[in-house]
Amino acid sequence: MKISNRNYNKIERLYLFCWLYTAHRDFDLAKRIAKNKSLNWEQAESLSDFCNQMVVTKETKPQEFISEENESSDKAIDKYLLLKDCIEQVKNRLGAKGKNELYKSVKSFYRKKSYCYQMDSFYTFLINGLFMYANKMITFQDFLNNYCFEVSLFTGKRSPIKLRYVIKMSNHILKC
To answer: 126 lies in which domain range?
Structure first.
């Protein structure tokens, strides 16, 4: 299946958007965590139990919620450096003006939180696979088998992606 230049440019724009979105989200979350005081053992156990009841796809342990004094700050700095590198790569690809426009739309999209669950549950993964297929890194069958599904946060089960959501999100992102 041949992808036209016009469609390839859309795929690349979506890929860059998702990449920048993920880096921005990870930095924002790390920054928010660093601002909070670390938990004691009882609080960590309680939070771990709550997470294990809500999300069955990943089991947590109380140790995961306890950090050293500077550990959260160090993680936030690492995430900032990754975001900075990502922005630089986007700038190299799109130029300064294109980078500014794309990052502004990513921050606006993230603030609105309208599609964040879909972005985190399947969309970024799908677009990564589509980008790899467009660049002939994987076959179409590999793309279908390994990237065209959604994993439920609560049950861990795979289900087919609803195409109308993908189209709606893609159009929304491309208009940003």
So the answer is: 5-175
